[in-house]
């Protein structure tokens, strides 16, 4: 947002125009010293023309004395001419006074003198309308100085002038013609604006300070002098409309050429007179002679209005006149002589700089009305030329707040004069121009620059720019608009068809403008207090131009109209008389405007919650909010993605870990199996159980759920445990039946699995050590797995606690379920590990028991049969014992050990039977397939959870019915 502090403070001296079309804002051209002296000189040496000289001599001694006395009085009062010379102070003082100013105490003396002399003049002029007009003009100037003079002026002659000009007709020069004749040229010296006498301004425009009431008093005197319509306009509205006429230099004019009458331009008295078939004298607020430059034109006709706009009034400045008479020259100016627009821009920024207690925001739009269509001169499509895509049609709308406005129209916020000038230069570039007979680069459209000024009070105190930005009085925003309009020129003599079409539109809209202004007088009084409704009968809607100007013309705005004329017709294709008629029409238009337009412009109220400043502030806040939201959203998404990626990675790791763990378990199973096959499991029953265990492990690696696999695994482990508990009983049994069973159960490819222990010679201790090592391995692995799971959990938790609540409920549930599954998996793996532990313990105790059992047996055998002592090793190593030897060795044993052996055999049979049942069960359930050779294989893909789980109770039931084994299995379960 363009905060006030952000508005750069332009340097008047350095401001330059971005393009050649807009003049440099350098003040040097404006402040040229001694400008007025040459002006005066130029008056006497101005080029010959058909201009009459000022009528001073014709006024007679009184008038002359009046004139001179008034001037001298002004000078002495202001103290500017005498003390400072025509310097900057003077110029500015004069310029500000273009709007009537209140009298000051210091001016009273001079006022009295002016008053008396004016009275004298007017009384001397009675009976001569021409003189009356001239004198009234002088009196009008005088009257600005004091209200005291006003009454006499009003009462005397003003009405006689303005009764005629009111309806657009000027008073013809019926008398005093002689007085004008013989005068070659006229270029009155720049008039000394009465404000200088009032001394109501400081010498610098930048310390402008005036009293509004006083100003209105001043304006009252001025207007009453010019219009003589006292009582019609209220004091408040007079002076709000300034009408000026500017005469373009007629460089090509030659004496006697194309003359159609005699003209008199008296800038000092703001008078233009014409002597021809009819004689006219027109008085305006300002008349600028050919030698007056743009700076003077701006100072006198627009400067004050611009500053009032900055204070909160709406203001409209427009240039009206025939083609080629200098409208664009006056509004835009040149590089060396900037016009109203660049000078206004400079002033706007000066004002901002001088008003630090308020915050300002400026936005600018630029449109043209060409052939009754509105074009946005700042839109890209306009700037890009005819090839660019057509822009959306711009329409005029009206609302109570904004009045009549064009939409959609691009508005640019500007923060410096350079920026503003650049924007306008861009629009100028896009504006349509063409060559007419009277102007090589004629504007073919009405161009409207609109600068919207928003301001509001700052809180006192804040020194830093930061403070200034933040500290505001909780007041409202004041919005005012400055419209600077360069109308297209009327042209009657177009030859080219395109020019004619354009000309028709231009003329039609100008005609409507003239009609509206003429009609304003009909209901002037009404309009002074009018509501919008009452003014609706005026044909504002007949043209886009009048519709756009409606708020200004109907009194809501300060208005300054600059009418341009060219007195000579040199350069014009039109015949001299046509040209003169056109010029007279312009003058009539100006006179009507002066008399008919009533402005009761009021300073805009400070609106709360409205205005661009506030909406921009709100927008900015919203934007930053949205930005923060977006950033946090992006950040959250990034975190979420990272978390997802981490999560996936962890899942993958866990999956791998699980697979690896299973492999390890399988491997462990194999080791157990091999240990069974060699030592503890020498009876073969264990081998069968081991198969089962292995089977469960294999099944486990299938596609069934973790739970089912765990059940299987547990089942295998339980079976093993049971087997181990039985083995503790059968440790000494080495019946060949087990070998037979073992061979029938072992798949062929298991021969390798038996591995190093397969020879049956490896010691049990070695197997136990291997198992232990494996166990340690497994434990390590599980702890790693646990650690990872913990990490995964932590990151999940942190994700949740970080408020990445964008995760859908389903996702949460998924994660939780997954975690639970992993927990279960770990638990189950633990159980398996415990099983293995127990199994190992069982194996150890079995080994120990076997050792113990063998020791007394060996001892008794050796005791009773000393010759057989060497057979001990054979009994413990069936592989090394000769076939059938075992029975022969057993025979000599005592009846007690026979009994013991019997019991062992029985229990071994029992285990075998149990295993058979289990295997049979599995075969029936389709988990195992019996090969033709009698061996059993695992059927791949037979992983039916229901079946596998179902086997457990069946097995349990079987085992339950069997004494000590039942107890052990129950405990395991
Ligand atoms: N006061 C002046 N002093 C010097 N040159 C002037 C003055 N007024 C106008 N001119 C010159 O006269 C020519 C026509 O002026 P300009 O284009 O401003 O006329 P216009 O009224 O805008 O015409 P149109 O309506 O055709 O656009 C330009 O070359 C301009 O420089």
Structural account:
- With 973 residues, this protein is α/β, with parallel strands linked by helices.
- It folds into two domains: 4-618, Kinesin; 628-863 and 901-972, no CATH class.
- 55% of the residues lie in helices and 11% in strands.
- The chain is built from 34 helices and 20 strands.
- Helix 24 runs parallel beside helix 26 and helix 25 (706-730) packs parallel to helix 29 (809-864).
- The longest helix has 68 residues, at 611-678.
- It is rod-shaped and about 165 Å long.
- Residues 248-249, 321, 323-329, 436, 439, 442-443, 488-489, 564 line the site of adenosine-5'-triphosphate.
- Pfam families: Kinesin.
- Residues 240-596 form the Kinesin motor domain.
- One of its GO terms (molecular function) is microtubule motor activity.
- Residues 20-31, 135-168, 729-744, 958-973 have a biased composition (Polar residues).
Keywords:
single chain, 973 residues, alpha/beta, Kinesin, 2 domains, 10-stranded mixed β-sheet, 4-stranded mixed β-sheet, 34 helices, 20 strands, 55% helix, rod-shaped, disordered N terminus, disordered C terminus, binds adenosine-5'-triphosphate
């Amino acid at each position: 947002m363009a905060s006030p502090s952000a508005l750069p403070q332009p340097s008047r001296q350095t401001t330059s125009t971005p393009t050649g079309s807009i003049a440099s804002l350098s003040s040097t051209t404006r402040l040229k010293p001694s400008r007025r002296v040459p002006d005066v000189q130029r008056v006497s040496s101005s080029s010959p023309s058909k201009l009459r000289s000022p009528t001073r001599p014709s006024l007679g001694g009184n008038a002359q004395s009046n004139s001179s006395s008034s001037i001298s009085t002004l000078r002495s009062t202001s103290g500017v001419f005498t003390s400072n010379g025509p310097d900057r102070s003077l110029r500015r003082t004069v310029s500000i006074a273009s709007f009537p100013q209140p009298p000051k105490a210091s001016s009273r003396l001079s006022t009295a003198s002016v008053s008396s002399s004016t009275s004298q003049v007017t009384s001397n002029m009675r009976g001569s309308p021409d003189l009356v007009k001239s004198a009234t003009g002088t009196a009008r100037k005088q009257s600005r100085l004091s209200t005291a003079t006003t009454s006499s002026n009003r009462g005397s002659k003003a009405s006689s002038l303005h009764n005629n000009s009111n309806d657009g007709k000027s008073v013809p020069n019926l008398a005093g013609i002689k007085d004008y004749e013989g005068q070659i040229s006229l270029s009155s010296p720049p008039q000394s604006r009465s404000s200088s006498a009032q001394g109501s301004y400081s010498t610098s425009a930048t310390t402008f300070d005036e009293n509004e009431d006083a100003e209105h008093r001043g304006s009252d005197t001025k207007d009453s002098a010019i219009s003589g319509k006292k009582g019609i306009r209220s004091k408040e509205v007079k002076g709000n409309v300034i009408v000026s006429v500017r005469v373009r230099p007629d460089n090509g004019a030659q004496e006697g050429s194309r003359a159609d009458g005699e003209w008199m331009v008296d800038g000092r008295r703001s008078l233009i007179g014409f002597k021809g078939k009819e004689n006219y004298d027109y008085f305006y607020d300002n008349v600028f002679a050919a030698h007056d430059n743009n700076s003077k034109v701006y100072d006198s006709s627009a400067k004050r209005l611009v500053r009032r706009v900055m204070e909160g009034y709406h203001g409209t400045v427009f240039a009206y006149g025939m083609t080629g008479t200098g409208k664009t020259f006056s509004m835009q100016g040149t590089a060396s002589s900037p016009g109203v627009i660049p000078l206004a821009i400079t002033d706007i920024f000066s004002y901002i700089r001088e008003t630090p207690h308020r915050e300002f925001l400026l936005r600018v739009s630029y449109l043209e009305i060409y052939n009754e269509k509105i074009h946005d001169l700042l839109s890209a499509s306009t700037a890009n030329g005819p090839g660019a895509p057509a822009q959306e049609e711009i329409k005029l709308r009206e609302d109570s707040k904004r009045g009549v406005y064009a939409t959609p129209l691009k508005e640019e916020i500007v923060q410096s004069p350079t920026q503003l000038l650049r924007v306008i230069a861009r629009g100028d570039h896009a504006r349509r121009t063409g060559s007419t007979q009277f102007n090589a680069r004629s504007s073919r459209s009405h161009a409207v620059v609109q600068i919207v000024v928003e301001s509001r009070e700052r809180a006192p105190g804040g020194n830093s720019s930061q403070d200034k930005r933040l500290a505001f009085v909780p007041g409202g925003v004041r919005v005012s608009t400055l419209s600077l309009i360069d109308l297209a020129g009327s042209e009657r003599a177009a030859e080219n068809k395109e020019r004619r079409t354009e000309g028709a539109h231009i003329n039609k809209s100008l005609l409507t403008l003239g009609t509206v202004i003429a009609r304003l007088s009909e209901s002037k009084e009404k309009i002074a207090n009018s509501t919008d409704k009452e003014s609706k009968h005026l044909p504002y809607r007949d043209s886009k131009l009048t519709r756009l100007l409606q708020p200004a013309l109907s009194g809501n705005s300060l208005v300054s109209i600059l009418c341009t004329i060219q007195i000579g017709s040199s350069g014009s294709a039109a015949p001299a008389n046509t040209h003169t008629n056109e010029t007279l029409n312009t003058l009539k238009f100006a006179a009507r405007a002066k008399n008919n337009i009533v402005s009761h412009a009021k300073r805009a109220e400070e609106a709360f919650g409205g205005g661009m400043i506030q909406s921009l502030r709100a927008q900015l806040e919203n934007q930053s909010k949205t930005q923060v939201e977006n950033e946090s959203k992006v950040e959250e998404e990034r975190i979420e993605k990272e978390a997802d990626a981490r999560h996936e990675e962890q899942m993958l790791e866990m999956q791998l870990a699980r697979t690896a763990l299973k492999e390890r378990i399988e491997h462990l199973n194999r080791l157990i199996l091999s240990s069974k096959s060699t030592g503890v499991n020498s009876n073969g029953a264990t081998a069968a159980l081991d198969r089962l265990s292995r089977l469960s492990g294999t099944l486990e690696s299938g596609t069934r759920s973790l739970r089912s696999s765990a059940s299987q695994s547990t089942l295998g482990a339980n079976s093993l445990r049971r087997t181990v508990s039985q083995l503790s009983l059968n440790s000494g049994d080495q019946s060949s039946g087990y070998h037979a069973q073992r061979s029938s159960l072992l798949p062929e490819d298991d021969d390798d699995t038996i591995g190093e222990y397969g020879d049956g010679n490896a010691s049990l201790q070695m197997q136990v050590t291997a198992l232990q090592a494996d166990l340690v391995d497994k434990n390590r692995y599980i702890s790693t797995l646990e650690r990872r799971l913990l990490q995964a959990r932590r990151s999940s938790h942190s994700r949740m606690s970080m408020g990445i609540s964008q995760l859908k409920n389903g996702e949460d549930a998924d994660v939780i379920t997954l975690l639970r599954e992993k927990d279960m998996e770990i638990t189950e793996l633990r159980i398996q590990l415990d099983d293995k532990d127990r199994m190992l313990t069982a194996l150890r105790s079995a080994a120990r028991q076997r050792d113990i059992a063998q020791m007394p047996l060996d001892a008794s055998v050796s005791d009773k049969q000393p010759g057989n002592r060497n057979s001990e090793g054979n009994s413990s190593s069936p592989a090394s014992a000769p076939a059938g030897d075992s029975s022969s060795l057993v025979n000599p044993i005592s009846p007690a050990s026979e009994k013991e052996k019997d019991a062992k055999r029985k229990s071994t049979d029992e285990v075998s039977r149990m295993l058979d049942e289990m295997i049979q069960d599995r075969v029936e359930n389709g988990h195992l397939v019996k090969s033709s050779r009698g061996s059993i294989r695992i059927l791949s893909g037979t992983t039916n959870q229901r079946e596998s789980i179902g086997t457990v109770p069946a097995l349990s039931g079987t085992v339950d019915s069997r004494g000590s084994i039942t107890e052990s299995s129950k405990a395991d379960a």
